[in-house]
Amino acid sequence: MGEIPARRSATNTRPWRLSAFVNETIARARTAAVPFKVGEVVVVDDPFNGRREGQVAVKNGTLVGLQTADRIFFYDHRQLRRPD
Predict the structure, then answer these.
(1) CA pair distance 57, 46, nearest whole angstrom
(2) pLDDT at 1 over 70
(3) Which of 8, 35, 44, 53 sits 20 to 30 Å CA-CA off 21?
(4) pTM attached to this predicted model
(5) Looking at the domain 41-81, which fold is it?
(6) What is the rounded CA–CA span in Å between residue 12 and residue 4?
(7) Across-strand partners of 61?
(8) For the CA atoms of 55, 62, 46, 53, what is the dihedral angle to 10 degrees?
(9) What are the pLDDT digits (tens) for 23-54?
């Protein structure tokens, strides 16, 4: 039997076309996995604002929301690293 993906509603259970399935599979494979977990402490050396340290609050695609004492700053996951 066919599986219903979580992002589709149960009322729309028509079979996918092969091209749509292949395109979605390729898009999922190209998406970079963020190596940090929510709540993990990370450090970023921002070239304009200096060094920031905080916890990962949000993961949205390749962007990571860094929760500092007063704000959330968004960075690309490649700029973040674990503290020394």
Answers:
(1) 18
(2) no
(3) 35
(4) 0.61
(5) SH3 type barrels. (2.30.30)
(6) 9
(7) none
(8) 10
(9) 888 877 776 678 899 999 999 998 888 999 99
